[in-house]
Design a protein that fits this description.
Blueprint: E1 3-16, E2 28-31, E3 34-39, H1 41-57, E4 67-70, H2 73-80, H3 87-99, E5 105-106, E6 110-111, E7 115-118, H4 119-131, H5 148-157, H6 161-170, H7 177-182, E8 198-200, E9 203-205, E10 212-218, E11 232-250, H8 251-257, H9 262-278, H10 285-288, E12 296-303, H11 326-345, E13 350-355, E14 366-368, H12 371-383
Parallel strand pairs: 13-14
Antiparallel strand pairs: 1-11, 1-12, 2-3, 3-9, 4-7, 5-6, 8-11, 9-11, 10-11, 12-13
């Protein structure tokens, strides 16, 4: 049996630049023949991971139930062994140890690419390096052009098999909630990739948007009084949009990624759903302070069916008249599309809706009054 937990959200942000492209402009996309505001999937997942850190500080998660994404894993290992081993030696040993499993170093004491590792995995690496300290030794360099290729192969094979096997067995995701949800790729160890239990769509505006520009100036506080004019000027692009956001979690895959730990899976799912609703991208927030809560959220728990993104409810860009709300009109469109799809493809399952827009649900799910109630009922439906 496959259980899917889908979350649909509508959130209208005031003028902002939440997620920028390489030119500093708000990201956008063409959809339904019009330009739409966009917030990338990566940006939304980053906001949720930051929310997980807040939950850790509250005691909801322990440190070893989360992961870290870094190129500085050698430094992290050295910090864990501080007081047991000399730092410079630990850095060298860590580099050698990870090379046994094809994770090579780049310049500056970093790995060649970002590694997304559970804290338990890093702790286990540190303990293994400490335990097999004298067996982790640098490979003797070979000379001559003909031996260069063989030298690379020998580096991995030169390690004692026990050490190599132990290091390789560590990369199991470490029961880290964020790795289990969002997955990871290890380019040099594809067999240790972890496939995500969660998919997060790019958020798009339900209506067309136009780019706007804020021309700003700044004045030197210490300039002479008889000197006029600005001392700095520039422009910042921004927009304002009602976003449709969507994500889906495979409950069985989440439990599998967390090695069958149902209690941790439940906490991870709860934190994800809550974070998806309340966490915000941080781009340019000091400039715009667009802290606008989500006003429509629907969580559907369905079994043995395919995921159902409702973005096509907005394929035709919304237009509103005077004194009409983009958020309410978007909610009406979303409910209408969901009901049509349910009628054609079946709507088995349970849906719970937190609705601040006064949109009539007309049989689309069960209305709830608080975020707490939404989470409780959704989790109860998952466990039924």
């Amino acid at each position: 049996m496959k259980t899917l937990i889908e979350i649909h959200a509508l959130q209208h942000f005031a003028p902002s630049n939440l997620n920028r492209d390489d030119t500093g402009a708000p990201k956008d996309a063409w959809f339904g023949g019009t330009r739409r505001a966009r917030v990338s999937s990566q940006c939304l997942k980053r906001a949720v991971r930051s929310y997980f850190d807040e939950k850790k500080n509250e005691g909801f998660f322990s440190s070893d139930e989360l992961a870290v994404r870094t190129k500085r894993v050698y430094q992290v290992i050295a910090d864990l062994l501080d007081g047991k081993r000399a730092k410079d030696e630990t850095l060298a040993k860590a580099e050698i140890a990870l090379s046994y499993v094809k994770l090579k170093a780049a310049e500056g004491g970093k790995t060649q690419y970002l590694l997304f590792l559970g804290q338990k995995e890093i702790a286990a690496l540190a303990e293994t390096i400490h335990q097999f300290w004298n067996q982790i030794i640098p490979e003797a360099k070979e000379t001559g052009e003909k031996t260069k290729g063989k030298g690379k192969k020998a580096t991995a094979n030169s390690a004692p098999k026990e050490v190599q096997d132990r290091i390789g067995s560590i990369f199991n995701g470490g029961k880290a909630v964020d790795v289990a949800l969002f997955g990871r790729m290890l380019a040099d160890m594809p067999e240790k990739n972890q496939y995500a239990a969660c998919q997060v769509a790019h958020a798009i505006s339900t209506h067309a948007v136009e780019r706007e520009f804020d021309f700003y100036t700044a004045v030197d506080d210490r300039k002479p009084e008889d000197t006029a004019g600005a001392d700095m000027m520039g422009t910042v692009e921004f927009n304002s949009a009602c976003f449709y956001r969507y994500a889906v979690v495979d409950w069985e895959k989440l439990k599998d990624n967390l090695q069958g730990d149902a209690e941790l899976s439940e906490r991870g799912l709860k934190a994800f759903l809550e974070g998806f609703v309340v966490a915000e991208p941080t781009g340019k927030q000091n400039t715009f302070a667009a802290h606008n809560p989500t006003e429509f959220v629907a969580v559907s728990v369905r079994r043995n069916t395919a995921p159902r993104n409702l973005a096509n409810a907005f394929e035709t860009a919304l237009r509103v008249g005077k004194d009409e709300s983009f958020t309410k009109k978007s909610a009406e469109r979303l409910v209408e599309k969901a009901k049509k799809l349910n009628a054609v493809y079946g709507g088995d399952g349970q849906t719970f809706v937190l609705n601040l827009t006064e949109t009539k649900l007309d049989g689309f799910g069960t209305s709830v009054s608080t975020l707490k109630e939404l989470l409780e009922k959704s989790l109860h439906a998952v466990k039924e």
